[in-house]
Amino acid sequence: MRTSGEYGSSITIKGKTPVPGFDFNANNTFGIAVTASASYNMTSDRYGAVSVTLPVSIRISEPLVLLANFGHSHDQFSNTSSTNWGAAFEFNLKPLGFEKLTLIGETFGNDRERDPRAQLGFRFTPASKIDLDLIYGHRLTGQADNWLTAGMTLRF
C-alpha cells in the first residue's frame, strides 16, 4: 500500500453474500451479491477504510466468468468517499490441464481519480472452499505504481 508517497501494509477483511434469487453458485450462470470490507493500516496502527460493493457474475462458458462491480467506499485517512467500479475475468485453466489453477485479471478505479489500475494473476484452489491468489498490479496512467498481492479466501 502507498499512502502520501510512503509505502505501508494493510489487512482487509471482506464478507460476501448473494442477493436472494441471484446466487451464482446455485444457478451457475448469473449472480448478484453484496460485499462489505474494512481495512486496517498496520503501518499507522489504525482503521483505514470501509466499502460496500455490488458484484455481478456472468458465466460465458465453462472455463470463463466475466465480472463487474459498482460500489462506494470511505477512506478515514483522507476523510473522502468515492464511487468505485471494476471489470474482471476468471479463466479456469482446467481445459489446459491445470485443474486447480485459474487466470484472473481486472481493471478498476473510482470517481475521484483519473488513473485506473489493472491486476493480473493466478488463483490456486487446493480444496473446494479454499482459494490462494497471487496477483501483480499496475497503475495504468499517471504515477507508475506496481504491487504484488497475496490473498486467501475461505468459503463456508
Describe the structure.
This protein is globular. The model has no long low-confidence stretch (mean pLDDT 89). The chain has a single domain (2-154), classed as Beta Barrel (Porin). It has a nine-stranded antiparallel β-sheet with strand order 3-4-5-6-7-8-9-10-11. The chain is an all-beta fold and 156 residues long. It is built from one helix and eleven strands, in the order βββαββββββββ.
In terms of topology, how is this protein built?
Blueprint: E1 2-3, E2 6-7, E3 10-18, H1 24-27, E4 30-41, E5 46-59, E6 64-75, E7 80-92, E8 101-110, E9 117-127, E10 130-139, E11 146-154
Antiparallel strand pairs: 1-2, 3-4, 4-5, 5-6, 6-7, 7-8, 8-9, 9-10, 10-11
